[in-house]
Amino acid sequence: MAKKSGITGNFRITHMDEWDQDFVDIEVPGFIRFDADDTGEFHFGCVHGEMTVEQTDRNGKPAVEWTWEGNDEMDEASGRGWAVLQEDGSLKGKLFFHSGDSSGFTALPKSKGATKSGRTVLAKDVKTGKVRKVDIETIKEGKIRHGGLPAGLLRRIRGVHEHVRDILGRTLEQFEIGFMRDMDPEKEVVIWERLVAAMARVEQALPEVDKNVVLRTLLAYSMGALAPAEKANPLVKKIIKVATGK
After folding, report:
1. Are the beta carbons of 55 and 6 closer than 8 angstroms?
2. pTM of the entire structure?
3. How far apart are CA 192 and CA 222, in angstroms?
4. Are 50 and 69 in contact (CB under 8 A)?
5. 6: buried, middle or exposed (CB in 10 Å: 19+, 13-18, 0-12)?
6. What SS3 class is residue 176?
7. 177-198 per-position pLDDT tens digit
8. In angstroms, how far is CA 234 from the centroid of its own chain?
9. CA separation, residue 129 to residues 16, 119, 121, 147, 224 (Å)
10. With contact defined as beta carbons under 8 Å apart, do 21 and 108 qualify?
11. Can you tell me the distance from the alpha carbon of 176 to that of 172, in angstroms, rounded to the nearest whole number?
12. Sign of torsion, CA 223 228 230 231?
């Protein structure tokens, strides 16, 4: 019987043989995670996978092997992989795509206190439904719930993206994947379409206000995430008044 290694936790992917680090981190800081219930998740580049994991060993070292299913650039994908725990606490292993590419990788354990990157974004708390500003390294991406979206909905998402891409700094693909993680993509698209319409009203009435400030104010307002000091800010109040007509 294979020896149980007990490899669990979140590991930051720091090297892949076949892709450079800029690609690995293009959507989120690349990671691979092993949970105590023999499941796991990884995300690098445009690839996201959910894993079924087996604890084992290789040449006397703790190891894990897994199969995975997920998405690669919006297309369904699957494969397998393995990793071995090194003496310094890192993982070295290889990930395979079914009938496709494969790549060796190195991953370092993330500390329990997440390292701050200095890059902050607005993110929705899945427990409260509210938006708050967080460091990008502390974000845990939700699972991709939809392998694809209807063509009509994708056209609407692309229309929204045209208006916000320069502000958010997100590619169309990154933006679309965000909706694939939502329980109700249609509902989220409607919210974004209303935000874009509200932005247009504010930009016409207050052309001197930075678009970044407008969008982030309206996002926080729509999610009920404005702090008391923000609600009292004259500029915030003006933006909301123009956007809502109230």
Report:
1. yes
2. 0.49
3. 10
4. yes
5. exposed
6. helix
7. 888 888 889 988 998 999 999 9
8. 33
9. 35, 22, 16, 23, 9
10. no
11. 6
12. positive
The two beta strands, 31-34 and 102-109, are unpaired
Rounded CA-CA distance 132/126 in Å is: 11
Strands 9-16 and 131-135: unpaired
Give me the helix-helix angle, 172-180 and 151-168, nearest 10°: 120
- Count how many residues are written for the chain: 246
When comparing pLDDT for 212 and 226, which is higher? 212
pLDDT of 137 > 60? The answer is no
Q: For position 120, what pLDDT does the model report?
A: 47
SS3 135: strand
How far is C-alpha 113 from the geometric centre of its chain's CA atoms?
Answer: 19
- Quick one: tokens of 173? 């693909």
Looking up tokens 């023999």 gives 38
CB distance 66 to 51 below 8 Å: yes
Structure tokens at 140: 């845990």
